[in-house]
Amino acid sequence: MTRLTLTDALMIEPPEGVEPGGRVDVEIADGAVAEIRPAGQGAPRGEPVPATGRLLTPGLINGHHHSHEHYHKGRYDRLPLELWMNYVRPLSPIPLSARHVYLRTMVGAIQALRSGTTTIVDDLNVSPVLIPEHVDAALQAYEDIGIRALVGPTLFDRPFFRALPFVEEEFPPELLARLSAVKATAPDAVLAFVRAKAVERHPREARVGILAAPSAPQRCTDGFLRQVRAMADEIVLPVIIHVQETRLQAVTAQRFYGRSMFAHLDALGFLKPATSLIHAVWVTPEDIRLIAASGASVQHNPNSNLKLGSGLMPMREMLEAGVNVSLGTDGCGSIDTVDMLRAVASTALVQKLRGDVPERWIDAGEAFAAATTGGARALGQADRLGRVAVGMRADLALWRLDSIPFVPLNDPLRQLVYGETGASLDRLLVDGRVVMQDGRLSLIDEAAILSEIGAAHAEIEPALADAEATVEAMMPAYRRIVARCRDETIDPAVLPARLA
Predict the structure, then answer these.
(1) Residue 391: C-alpha distances to residues 34, 60, 201, 377, 394 (Å)
(2) Any idea what the Cα angle at residue 468 is, between residues 467 and 470, rounded to 5°?
(3) Distance in angstroms (rounded) separating the CA atoms of residues 44 and 53
(4) pLDDT tens, residue order, the chain (500 aa)
(5) Comparing C-alpha atoms, which of 137, 242, 132, 122 is closest to residue 189?
(6) Which residues of 386-404 are buried (b: 16+ CB within 10 A; e: fewer)?
(7) Residues in CB range of 495: below 8 A, 6 or more apart
(8) Contact 368, 387 (CB under 8 A)
């Protein structure tokens, strides 16, 4: 059994028996926290790891990103979701090798670790044709770099272009025919693949595991959603699903279901604990009540919602209703980064635009909690992740207190949330294993990997450009649909999500 002891670390909230601001020794055995005691109270067991002058925190949990978008970093701006997303899911798939996928996955995994993230959730697009070797390559990248990952091959049985209103009216018949003729792996086959992988890599047992990732209600038939829910319940898997990220999706809900997507999912029996409703920007008080009653979580992605102009989720109203909120970055195609420190800071900053009562603003502690304990609860792993406590997995970060974000030191948590860029991250552990030491990734040759990623991107860039060109043929119809939905009224009870 591997043992090590972090010595003389500063904890933000030390356990009972340690004075506030006091230092602690943290013993780690077999990947878990075995004991936390006042610094110097007993000899270190196993390898001593000096942590003097270091702030000890739980690693961050990135509850949502898309690794399939990493080669698209920096390519798009001033596009709303319904226009932008077509470019990262082109009709003509970009020809990739398993090594391309491995390297693509590393783009996000490296930045995740460098921003203090120890757990990442990857909603991995495998359409139109599932290539099992590509999924295995993504899993292997997470294994090799040492991060904890939950990978969800995206599940849907309604083509993305059918997930909008007015398609039959606005898409030319020849374009609809071409879109409908795209050959794709049968949805049931993808679902069976995910089931088999989940049994092999259950997230309660495997550091790199599988979860269920139905894309969105409007991209799934009710029958398919029930199939996914039944599988997740049977195997006990976390579930993630995009719900009402944009105003257009609120319009879509009214036209498809005659009610909100939250109400529709509730009627299907889909809303349950360990189920993350990604984004949930356009909501009514009744939607929030339904979410709270179900035990489902809301997954906040502030930066992608800002860049795509989607709006601002009402986090205070969610928390006051008893809804668990977690945080994520979303994909590099939209927000260009997997930096969770930015997501935490943005949560504590932009949420202050909601309302004029400062006592109700989201503060640094609530934003950090959403990125740690909130993320763990959303994944059904609050008993294992998200806290520095005895019995929890040792997914831990040590931050240098002699760096500029912490000098002078007044409130370490606020200074971490509002001032840290990742430059102060000294050491990172996942399952008690050191994956970063002295600011260097321990398990991979980062420079060599980055060089290979650059070469791989140069190799496939012409195919990226060609794929984007094929999407342009769809844009006039999509823009007309966006304009029509902009003019449609929505439920007046929806809480304000955008500035006028």
Answers:
(1) 6, 18, 22, 16, 9
(2) 65
(3) 18
(4) 589 999 999 999 888 888 888 899 999 999 999 999 999 999 999 999 999 999 999 999 999 999 999 999 999 999 999 999 999 987 778 999 999 999 999 999 999 999 999 999 999 999 999 999 999 999 999 999 999 999 999 999 999 999 999 999 999 999 999 999 999 999 999 999 999 999 999 999 999 999 999 999 999 999 999 999 999 999 999 999 999 999 999 999 999 999 999 999 999 999 999 999 999 999 999 999 999 999 999 999 999 999 999 999 999 999 999 999 999 999 999 999 999 999 999 999 999 999 899 999 999 999 999 999 999 999 999 999 999 999 999 999 999 999 999 999 999 999 999 999 999 999 999 999 999 999 999 999 999 999 999 999 999 999 999 999 989 989 999 999 999 999 999 999 999 999 86
(5) 132
(6) bbbeeebbbbbbbbbbebe
(7) 283, 284, 285, 314, 317
(8) no
Contacts of 297 by beta carbon, 8 Å cutoff, 6+ apart: 274, 275, 276, 277, 323, 324, 325, 326, 374, 377, 378
- 457: tokens are 């991107």
**73 closest CA partner among 97, 106, 99, 98:** 106
3-state helix, strand, coil in the chain (%, to 5): 45, 20, 40
Tokens of 476: 């006039």
Burial class (CB in 10 A: 0-12, 13-18, 19+), 414: middle
The structure tokens listed for 273 are 């604990």
Structure tokens at 306: 């800002």
Tokens 């844009």 map to which residue?
475
Return d(Cα 104, Cα 457) in angstroms, integer: 9
φ and ψ at residue 302, rounded to 5 degrees: -60, -40
- For residue 54, CA distances in Å to 8, 144, 396 come to 8, 27, 12
- Separation CA 348–CA 344 (nearest Å): 7
383 with 373: CB under 8 angstroms? no
Q: Which of 65, 486, 78 is nearest to 278 (CA)?
A: 65
